[in-house]
Amino acid sequence: MKDRNRNGFTLLELLVVIAIIVVLAGLLFPAVQSVLERAKKVQAKNDLTQIVTAVNAFYTEYGRYPIDSTITTDAAATFGGSTSSKTLFDELRGKTANLNTRQIVFISPPEDSSQSNPKGKIGTDGQFHDPWASTYWIRMDANYDNTVDNAYTDGSAGGDPSANYALRIGAIAWSLGKDGTLGSSGNNKFTGSDDVISWQ
Questions:
Q1: Distance between CA 183 and CA 76 in Å, rounded?
Q2: For an engineered disulfide with 94, which of 38, 101, 105, 189 has Cβ 3.0 to 4.6 Å away?
């Protein structure tokens, strides 16, 4: 009898190929994660730029920032975290006519009415969430002295050191990044943090 030639793979060859694929996937995973994280930071920076532009456009249109006692009692006019930004974004999106009497749409971010904190969208809570599903923080010059207090306690995020790093700007916005804490490990310092800010 003649030996028949077999053209298939042996079990050992298949196991070697699978092992090589697993090793390559393991090597690629951190690189893919890094690219995705950078993409989220770029999206957050774009969102923050749009928010500050919308606030400044509101100021240009009405001669005031979209804040009053019905929106916040905070002298620094800070929104985000425990202070909901829903009313602010309702004004900027032209949903209400309390301050935006002509109901001009200054910003139109995507919405997801099925989630309370969607990534990169406005959720059912009416707040604008960053790519990590935390709310964006916004601070405006509520007393119109041409400065806004910097959210960070060091000079790494800019600002005038002689005035507690106050920024000579009308509005700022920031994202707490992937870790969800202000600064690096919650120390309120921008250096080494994964936060994204609008003013740099």
A1: 19
A2: 105
Smallest Cα–Cα separation from 115: which of 124, 126, 127, 104?
Answer: 124
The pLDDT tens digits of the residues spanning 2-28 come to 555 566 778 888 888 899 999 888 888
Contacts of 68 (CB under 8 A, 6+ apart): 98, 99
Q: Would you kindly state where each structural domain of the chain is located, as residue ranges?
A: 12-197
